[in-house]
Amino acid sequence: MAFDLEMIRAVYAGMGSRIEAARAAVARPLTLTEKILYAHLYGGEVKHAYERGVSYVDFAPDRVAMQDATAQMALLQFMQAGKPTAAVPSTVHCDHLIQAKDGATADLAEANAENKEVYDFLASVSNKYGIGFWKPGAGIIHQVVLENYAFPGGMMIGTDSHTPNAGGLGMVAIGVGGADAVDVMAGMAWELKFPKVIGVKLTGKLSGWTSAKDVILKVAGILTVKGGTGAIVEYFGEGAESLSCTGKGTICNMGAEIGATTSVFAYDEKMGDYLRGTGRAEIAEAAAAVAAHLRADDEVYTQPELYYDQLIEINLSELEPYVNGPFTPDAAWPISQFAAAVKEHGWPEKLEVGLIGSCTNSSYEDITRAASIAKQAVAKGLHVNAEFTVTPGSELVRYTVARDGLLDTFAEMGGVVLANACGPCIGQWARHTDDPKRKNSIITSFNRNFAKRNDGNPNTHAFVASPEIVTAFAIAGDLTFNPLTDTLPGTNGPVMFDEPVGVEMPPRGFAVEDAGFQAPALDGSRVQVLVSPESDRLELLEPFKPWEGTDLKGLRLLIKAQGKCTTDHISMAGPWLKYRGHLDNISNNMLIGATNAFNGRVNEVKDFVTQGDGYTTVPQAARSYKSMGIGTVVVGDENYGEGSSREHAAMEPRHLGVRAVIVKSFARIHETNLKKQGMLALTFANKADYDLIEEADLIDILGLTTFTPGQPLQARLHHADGDTDLITLNHTYNEGQIEWFKAGSALNLIRLKESSGSMLSQK
């Protein structure tokens, strides 16, 4: 079944003229990224060229996707926008709230009981506003989108940082906060700084143990966790065309780990095969008819160094498998060097758990390659030395691989199949362990491996690799084992693994009994959305207060965060996911994972108003200052807010009285989320000024009465000894974003405009 077919045909019908106008405006050949972006301008055909990395541009995405954890806050905000229905095709996917514990059946039943209130809310609000609803167990948002909604040349935003997964089908798909989703669902323009374009030329062809996962693991090692910030990564070359569609999706999915705005591949026959295999032959036919628009111009491929801001070349024929980690996804180790790295760094050699699947690697091809290794283990009499779990990405994949006997293969080697949900990848894992604080090692085929992310244990060393490498390591139970060269003891002596064998598409086609989709009512005007005032999981939102019209003076330093501070540090997932629809309750996790630069401890800061010189938790200190009417400031290090798109990491500080976040540099999504919630997202003009911030400082933010794009602000630091420092703070606000700040939030501005429009229509 092809969803939204007429919308897709309309996009293709208008692409030619828009791309032609863009080519004339830019006066040079276009990259694929530029073609898609210029074809989705909110105002129609381009009037002038935009400068990469500089110009803020209004876009009109084709659709919106939301997962259940972020959808709660997004839809609570949308309910305030005063719109009768979503302006573009939108969907909600229930994948984040299912905890992995005992296995798929038991875990899903427990989740349905535990989260009934939230699921009922999401189902009813989706029903009211014309939003497609994917029930718990239907699958992980990104896999379901790839199977049903992604289309070449389209543009989508999603309230999850791994939305770029859809780039595997040639779509510019960008992770955003819920407030951005509200803009688009309300029919308004969505703003993005026109990204730079990084080209990755792939030559050769994968073989043996090397998979698409290893491409992005290597790229992560090259670009690091912030090397893609402000850029779209565009893959091309003969090597790109040789990759399966789902393999391309894996690469794009993990582009979030390098900070990229998104990643994308040009349309090719592999994408056409996947569209036809998932029941969308009409889209494959429509895409083929405009194929020239769904790839960069020929001149770009001939001389890529002239058209990309940065160019990387990788020969797939020479690429070897990688294992990345621990604690960061850009610590890249070729398999030939990994054992030595384990020994050199003293990482726990014993492997306790191997986990495959997730939104990143749960395609039919992934499962067949991993199953080919599992089958060898059974046939060669190998003993499995670590726990092993399988997380299917969707019910379509799960049902098909079960029908084809692949899940039975994993069961024979002792594997446990978990629900079609995020589970351990996002900390929703009731891990079986005798000591939750023990130093240990796990390996996954997931995308992210920050400390504490999977199981809450800061001493868990999490490594990332392809599903087949993970499977081999789980069998060996030893991180110094190299499956390409080493032997394991079998029933008849030492044995080596044969190379994995995968099948891109199921020979008998995909099959499913109940995909888990629930269509909305044709007329939702009478549908009631009920939120109990006694609920501790759902809470209707109160608008944030607008700016008072003055400089902000006498602000207290809440915390000076040291080192890596991701959205997991700012607003943890795991057990806190249950409060994603209740802003006040979830605010009790604000910055509890951040390290205080003054004492080196986590979640321990001074409250100079009520505690004197004593320490308290970050949320308690914030609530104390807020109760006294004192605003606060958060100071951070480089790439502050990297990781998930969760806007709670911006809404919680706003709710608890933080007025400004001052850092050395921001991750893109988090900076936007802060702006959307009416906060000041500022960077040190001189990064060394970070060291001037003292624990007892009072801080004034100056220059707000003349707040102007391109004009820095200042902060006066009042130190406890009576001295002061005046420092310069840069910002990236444009005129529209400054209006968000003045109104108190972007949503407040939508509400004001809606109210003004209503009053004018009444007149």
UniProtKB/TrEMBL annotation:
It comes from Hymenobacter sedentarius. Its cofactor is [4Fe-4S] cluster. One of its GO terms (molecular function) is aconitate hydratase activity. The lineage of its organism: Bacteria, Pseudomonadati, Bacteroidota, Cytophagia, Cytophagales. This is Aconitate hydratase A. Keywords: Iron, Iron-sulfur, Lyase, Metal-binding, Transit peptide, Tricarboxylic acid cycle. The keyword Transit peptide applies. Pathway: Carbohydrate metabolism; tricarboxylic acid cycle; isocitrate from oxaloacetate: step 2/2. It catalyses: citrate = D-threo-isocitrate.
